[in-house]
């Protein structure tokens, strides 16, 4: 049993009164996914916005460190396996983002002095804080701590109640859960929820002031992944603006040997396009002789299919159809997003100003070409220098400025 949590709907037993304006959800339509599990570093898994701050980390920090709220702070910290003294530093390492998919989590209400866990399906458009492994850890509007969903996302019963009506675009078969990455992340590759042609690269632990932007339609070469492990291939794909996922109930283990890919290495791909990895059955081990060849084919006996998909996919792509060896349109290239601010018990105008860009953090994620980066002009950082695969450039323009009850 999973309780639906709609964007902009107040929680019954929150850690923090939502009238305090800690977070601001938006209304976006959930995007389809290929497979129920996404990795936390998947480019385009999360969204950003040029609107003012979606999550006020400093206000949450002040609340949890106030001696009057010590009992709540103890319960909150206990969920995340930290001490109350560690709360400030922990919050400083989190990054505010918007969900782009209906996402399963283990949520926690505050009842009778304790944190009470319950499974939740968070609607796309809800603002959350994610940790350095890309895992949602806090629901911004109420401060509720979050943990990874522990059930089978393919076998859930979603219950809509307490004002959480079934939202447009809801599909039980198109929900996702996030698996934390093995490596700490330096930055997150987001998609602007109001303009999917605009990508946002956000250093972890920042709230938008150091964002840089890029065109999601720019194409770069598909990296060579044959002969690597699934974990390494996933990192290579993430660095190229592609995301690892699986059609099955579980992702392959990180040490599973990759035999080939479709499309093949060198194929020009845009941000978030699908790639299928063929991995050896039985987990890790050395790749068979000649396993690097035959990419894009059905493969030898004893191999299995694992899908890498652009979780940044938009409505223009067809995630239900298999990828081909030729590049398809970028699934993040929606041209007509339906986005509007969510109803919120807080003030309609967030307190902080729109994010401006400054010098981006150096990182191994290098899918953005120098020509595609377009930081805001409100600050004067040195130009961004990156290494990226080459390929044709798309024609996608970039803006200059940076209560019902039911069961399904």
TrEMBL record:
Pfam families: DUF6777 (PF20568), PASTA (PF03793)
Low complexity composition-biased segments: 300-309, 317-379
Region (Disordered): 281-408
Domain DUF6777, chain residue ranges per copy: 39-203
InterPro entries assigned: DUF6777, PASTA_dom
Residue ranges, compositional bias (Gly residues): 281-299
Chain ranges of the PASTA domain: 222-280
Protein name per Swiss-Prot or TrEMBL: DUF6777 domain-containing protein
Taxonomic source organism: Streptomyces hyaluromycini
């Amino acid at each position: 049993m999973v309780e639906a949590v709609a964007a902009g709907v107040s929680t019954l037993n929150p850690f923090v009164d939502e009238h305090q304006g800690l977070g601001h959800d938006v209304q976006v339509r959930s995007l389809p996914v290929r497979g129920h599990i996404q990795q936390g570093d998947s480019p385009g898994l999360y969204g950003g916005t040029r609107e003012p701050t979606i999550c006020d980390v400093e206000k949450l920090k002040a609340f949890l460190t106030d001696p009057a709220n010590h009992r709540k702070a103890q319960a909150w910290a206990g969920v995340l396996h930290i001490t109350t003294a560690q709360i400030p530093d922990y919050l400083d390492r989190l990054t505010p983002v918007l969900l782009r998919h209906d996402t399963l989590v283990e949520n926690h209400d505050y009842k009778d002095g304790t944190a009470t866990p319950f499974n939740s399906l968070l609607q796309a458009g809800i603002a959350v804080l994610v940790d350095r492994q890309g895992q949602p850890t806090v629901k911004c509007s109420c401060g509720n701590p979050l943990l990874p969903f522990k059930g089978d996302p393919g076998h859930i019963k979603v219950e809509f109640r307490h004002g959480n009506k079934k939202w447009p675009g809801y599909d039980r078969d198109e929900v996702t859960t996030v698996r934390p990455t093995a490596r700490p992340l330096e930055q997150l590759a987001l998609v602007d929820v109001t303009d999917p042609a605009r990508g946002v690269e956000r250093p972890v632990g920042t709230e938008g002031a150091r964002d840089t932007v890029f065109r999601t339609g720019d194409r770069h070469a598909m990296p060579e992944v044959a002969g690597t492990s699934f974990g390494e291939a996933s990192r290579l794909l993430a660095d190229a603006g592609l995301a690892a996922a699986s059609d099955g109930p579980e992702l392959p283990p990180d040490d599973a040997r990759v035999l080939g890919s479709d499309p093949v290495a060198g194929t020009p791909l845009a941000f978030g396009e699908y790639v299928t990895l063929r991995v050896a059955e039985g987990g890790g081990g050395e790749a068979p002789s000649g396993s690097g060849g035959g990419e894009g084919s059905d493969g030898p006996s004893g191999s299995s299919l694992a899908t890498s998909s652009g979780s940044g996919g938009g409505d223009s792509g067809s995630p239900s159809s298999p990828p081909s060896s030729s590049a398809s349109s970028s699934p993040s290239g929606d041209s007509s997003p339906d986005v509007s601010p969510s109803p919120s018990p807080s003030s309609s105008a967030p307190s902080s100003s729109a994010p401006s860009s400054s010098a981006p953090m150096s990182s191994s994620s290098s899918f953005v070409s120098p020509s595609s980066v377009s930081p805001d002009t409100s600050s004067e950082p040195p130009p961004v220098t990156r290494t990226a695969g080459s390929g044709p450039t798309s024609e996608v323009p970039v803006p200059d400025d940076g209560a019902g009850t039911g069961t399904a």
